[in-house]
Design brief:
single chain; 251 residues; alpha/beta; 6-stranded parallel beta sheet; 6-stranded mixed beta sheet
Amino acid sequence: MKIALIGYGKMGRMIEEIALQRGHEIVSIIDINNRQDFDTDAFRSAEVAIEFTAPSAAYDNICQAFNQGVKVVSGSTGWITQHGEEMRQRCWNEGKTLLWSSNFSVGVAIFRALNRKLAQIMNAYPQYDVCLQETHHTHKLDAPSGTAITLAEQIVCELDRKDGWQRGITRLADGSREGSMQCPAEKVRVDAVRSGEIPGIHTITYDSPEDCISITHSAHSRRGFALGAVLAAEYVARNEGWLTIDNLFNF
């Protein structure tokens, strides 16, 4: 398979390594200094582009790929709330193809399935309140993480007593804090921590006066995310339209 990479930071390089190991060819690499290369035969020859960039750049990157007739796998977060509906419409009405996910890790896909099932069970036990905490490296720009938002939205869908999520406390690497722990009863509070080089930890906690239930996913490295992105690209090469991680990992 011919792959284009959009974004060539740590994730882009790791995706390149795994893609080559799996027998794929990297035909184009686009980063901040060569955005003119979208409009090249090399980029247009890609069967799929894998996009991991900053929230401020992701939307335009995907539009540029669409303009060249290239399918996209995107793991960039922090932009989908504003532009997600437009992207869905372009896939449905214009024949574009995008698989977006806040997290491509196989382990996180399993964790999301567990999260959904646990929330379904806890819907019958209103004495338990629920909150989330995510911890990531200091380079991550958005808080809370896209994965934490996805997990919170899953919980809201399953718990009748919740109608949305709310940003809670964000603890920064310099020791400062933003936000508040005060949260309406009908919201799911999502806290964030930025520290060191942590690839990603997500913890969901149900607390009651009697006891506490928690589930946690902890990434050892970014390699699981990169492998999942390549698996997603292999899936997208054979499929079309608006796709999600649930299409790839159907638990």
